[in-house]
Design brief:
alpha/beta, single chain, 40% helix, 20% strand, four-stranded parallel beta sheet, seven-stranded mixed beta sheet
Amino acid sequence: MINIAGSESLKVVLVHINFHSQDFDEELDEFIQLVESSGIKAKTVIGGKRALPDARYFVGKGKVAEIVDVIRYRKAQLVIFNHKLTPVQERNLEREFKCRVLDRVGLILDIFAQRARSFEGKLQVELAQLQHLSTRLVRGWTHLERQKGGIGLRGPGETQLETDRRLVRNRIKTINKRLEKVRSQRSQGSEWRQRSGVPVVSLVGYTNAGKSTLFNKLSGSNIYTANKLFATLDPTLRQIELFPHTKIIIGDTVGFIRHIPHDLIQAFHATLEEVKSADMLLHVVDVTDEQSYDHIEQVNQVIQDIGAGDVQQILVFNKIDSMDLLDAEIEDNQNGQPKCWLSAQSGEGIDSLKNLICKYLKLKRQTFKIHLPPGAGRLRATLFERGIVYNEVLDEEGGCVLSINIDPSSLERICRDNQGQLTMLQ
């Protein structure tokens, strides 16, 4: 993989082709943002139109010649396509251009490599890069091929290409084993959160929609935010108190993007499990984006792909402070999806969102009465700490009757984990 981090002075030619087809078309503005997010400043954009991609070069021979002329004139060192190229197309283009060619997937992978901070995130990015690279290994070395000689020297036994492929496969196996341990630890944390009965709310949305800014506003944290695509890569979890005795765990996740590479979905499977196991999703939308409704569909498609389509969603339209005619408001009807308009930057509408979260999370909860004996003080303290107790009556023996608000499955786990320490009254 080519490393383009910090390449402000790198001379780059960008290629964007309009096919008038959802299967191949990408957004030019988003492409420019991706390129700038990677650290590239100097660039030249070449456009064009086609009915379908060319099997050999992706673009036609005339466009190839045009790009070659621009490369020579600009003395460009890199050509980036705003499209996914096949290994054959990428190889053929490099042969014609006499310089490195990068496609949209490779560009996104490079940005992810720059953004990864945690051990897990770095492993996930490396895995995605190696999976992408494994399809693009070409016969670039010949020094071990067809060696001449006597007995024992009639062949190399293993060509350089085969060696590279074997090394890549071995490294992928090693990373998968390490990620398996990380997934096991993450799974244990997820099980603990489920046993605790504290609902989990995950922020999802198109990249650069303002998820991290909203996360900071809700949690009082100070995680990194920037007006860049994929500013957040590593997931972050915080337990917060929306209102007194009303706690949730909120999670910030990586932003989605149209035509998200399959290798990324596979590599970030463990991270995306946080979305799948959440009790609620806050689907954050940049209200200033002209493509916002298309992006909603793109995000929902990814949510479906990872098996989280049935999780309750609240649509959060962010950045109303940038729109003169929009005010903070709630659209909450019984037949449609709940929606909230707010500004994560200024805080306008945040309290309304908190109320909406509480309302829909409580739909899953029911009221129960339980009796705790005098010796269950530790369990009593835990229930109060989780914010699910709203009434307590002491009995004559030193025990207590607690009125709790909790979803039945969480109560079932509490009963199973604390057998003999509590009795159901209602």
